[in-house]
């Protein structure tokens, strides 16, 4: 079992829909959770981070964390074609330094 | 301020040659990370530096790989006797720290290494 698991996709949604990206992790000591967006041929770009259980909203993006279920998700509302990318989930056990990334979910938003 | 910079952006080398990849982190960031990403794959952790502490080398795939960080800033990743399987994009990231806050990593543009 991988330490951080994501559905590889591809996930395809129509423009304007909600895209839901999921991530599970195995280390219960994990305390920091991140979502990165990576366009093809580019480096990852941080879009959200969350530390506490519950929801965190930033514009069209909402991160959700449930530590009891070891689950973190990213919702993208009003999806746009420009959101088409690979989304990487990353998990850190605070003060351990090393972060663990999932393999990413590829999202395609169709006009 | 400036983001993380890496050089060169592309490197083509012959099998068996040594290569050096450079990373200049964001000013004031104490933590620096190296990752490798093969085509269509996720990020593979290589090594991590935090301040003056001994680096976490647990991700280095073989003893042909080494890295150093001089003066707590610039880092160099060296690959000796390169092999074709070393071909990948090498990404560097930095973060302000590793505590509960400020551990978000910011990535450089990467170095694409091709070993012929």
List strands and helices in order, with pairings.
The complex is a heterodimer of chains A (111) and B (116).
Chain A: E1 4-6, E2 11-14, E3 19-25, E4 32-38, E5 45-50, E6 54-58, E7 61-66, E8 71-76, E9 85-92, E10 99-101, E11 105-110
Parallel strand pairs in A: 2-11
Antiparallel strand pairs in A: 1-3, 3-8, 4-5, 4-9, 6-7, 7-8, 9-10, 9-11
Chain B: E1 5-7, E2 10-13, E3 19-24, E4 31-37, E5 44-50, E6 65-69, E7 75-79, E8 88-95, E9 106-107, E10 111-115
Parallel strand pairs in B: 2-10
Antiparallel strand pairs in B: 1-3, 3-7, 4-5, 4-8, 6-7, 8-9, 8-10
For this structure, the quaternary state is heterodimer
DSSP strand tally of chain A: 11
Order of helices and strands of chain A: EEEEEEEEEEE
Q: By helix and strand content of chain A, what is the structural category? A: mainly beta
Q: How far is the first residue's CA from the last residue's CA of chain A?
A: 36 Å
Mean pLDDT of chain B: 92
Task: Provide the low-confidence segments of chain A as ranges.
Answer: none
